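> Could you send the Malate dehydrogenase prediction when you get a chance?

Sure thing. Input:
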Amino acid sequence: MRTSMFRLIRNGSASRSRDIGRGYSSGAVPERKVAVLGAAGGIGQPLALLMKLNPLVSRLALYDIAGTPGVAADVSHINTRSEVAGYMGEEQLGQALEGSDVVIIPAGVPRKPGMTRDDLFNINAGIVKSLCTAIAKYCPNALVNMISNPVNSTVPIAAEVFKKAGTYDEKKLFGVTTLDVVRAKTFYAGKAKVPVGEVNIPVVGGHAGITILPLFSQATPKANLPDEDINALTKRTQDGGTEVVEAKAGKGSATLSMAYAGALFADACLKGLNGVPDVVECSFVQSNITELPFFASKVKLGKNGVEEVLGLGSLSDFEKRGLENLLPELKASIEKGIKFANQI
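Output:
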């Protein structure tokens, strides 16, 4: 039952490694601790559930400023491998983090109707800075999966905090952009009339609005969609978050699909740590493939985190224009994060 349930997640992974579908006994893989910071929130709760279903996790630490004992008690009753512990309040943050191999950060406030990612910045930036200060102290070697928006700014904030603490390793900090890939695959499959499980599409750039650039010219299976369809699919992928916020009419954001995407990416990180070969996912990482210090592209994951940042490949003229247009906005978001992190 456990393996078949989690296969729903595993089969969605871009890497779809041949090793992962065979299932694991608890003794066949290393012990791995995963901490979820913000585990009582709208993303955190379903993410905690999905990570409890992952057979690669042996210990699951759930942290939030309130509400975590209940979430942990609920999730702990699920008959899967990992042992679950809940931690609440700043005084227990260190315990939650100690010994973690992967730290996932969905903490912060969600988007509401009319709210931009810049609006989110003022609240979430401080939360991220505080949490990353603790990560540098208690688990400096963990892989950090940043979900808290705006990712284009929160990843640079995290990098600056780790640099100040002397613990920064660019191979271990990731902005989770997997939801953009998930959406691009879903929307493309629907328009191209191809099985969604067979679709692969890289999404590059950043994780907000026009900085999200799906490379439909590289999509497989190839469908030769007309330009107007590609334009519409690109716009829908970029506006996917807004689509959900408006559909929920003020009662939430894309929490469930984000939890799914976060679980996918965390699974890929765990597979990389465990030595599974050819694990490739898109992520917002320190990069030199453009003039910007951070950029999302395909990344090969390994035992130390980033094994290789892969290039963009050949782009269509439409994608080249999109790349040119996104760079100034992404640059400003990165600089905003760096400036915030360096304020006293």
